Amino acid sequence: MSKLNWTRYARPLPKPFRPASLSTFVITTKIDPTRPSAIAFPRQLCHNLKRSTYIRRSSRMGADHTPHGPTKSAKSMKILTFLDTAVVRRISLWRLCTCPSFRKTPLVLSPDGYCWACGTKQVWLSAKIINDELAGAWEINRTIREAFDARESMFCPNCGASCRSRSLSEAICRLYHNTNSLENLVTTPGFQKLRVAEINSCGTIHRLFSRLPYLSYSEYNSTDPAIRSEDLHNLSYSDSTFDLVFSSDTLEHVPNLARALSEIYRILKPGGRHVFTIPVVWNRQTRTRAVLQGTIINHLETPSYHGNGGPDYLVFTEFGGDAPKFFMRSGFEVRLFGINLRNLEDPSGVFVATRMGEVP
Fold first, then answer.
1. Which residues neighbour 310 within 8 Å (Cβ) at sequence distance 6 or greater?
2. Domains defined along the chain, listed by start
3. What is the pTM of this model?
4. Disulfide check for 309: which of 13, 158, 269, 305 has CB 3.0–4.6 Å away?
């Protein structure tokens, strides 16, 4: 039977390190991977459910109140979601509907805030990143384009971390010891004991990961003798080697996504985590842009390239709101950090895929 839990992450940070825009919500999903129809894509999910489905009534709080304050009516909750309606009928969604972190404006557009990489409050430096060719191939509107510009820029003046790198840093800090920055986390004795794989550089925060004594850093087709070369289709690491695997906007460039996820699952210890980001357009479904047949790339859509436009940056998979199902089918338990379900034009968020077993 499919199981799905919406949980609020315990132990928020101390006040001095807790910015106003901090999202503390975590979505934990467990869906039977043998059921291809376990994930549906209804647009007006809350309109299909009774109000009592997602309001926990309590005589001590009043009929229409939750621990987070008064609830909003069902008709005002227009949440597009990838969750199966039958699954949602069996859970309570009031936490989702009343969580203040689900704002209408994209979180990535905040002009300033707290940097989870270096632990300082800064005013971000924005830049235009998405070019016209990519935006056209991606078929994204102006609002989503601006949000992705912000995701890939909004640089911290202190450490240079982009919005995407800061989101990745925040998720890692919340998962491990709940420290106030990644810079502090990598110096803690407990975190330094972990065996970590960084598959392709995670941008400016790679310098922080490089302080870990048991880091295995690799790049695809590396020609540098000092940097290990690894292919996600056939990793050279032994089974159950790592406690933690990092990747940042890498999986969309892998020709065989299922094979890559199987390899990541194999090298993780039971309870090990793959913490990663992928570019997601939440208000539509995933589509395949290209397939690799032998040594020949067959383009199903107009070729789309990220980064500098080189052949290694060709997009094979364009992720949509049903993206979690691909990871769950590979046997992972999936958590989504910072997903803004009140505005699906906001591409912020981090995925945490855990190999089932005892958490390290």
1. none
2. 3-98 (no CATH), 113-355 (3.40.50.150)
3. 0.73
4. 305
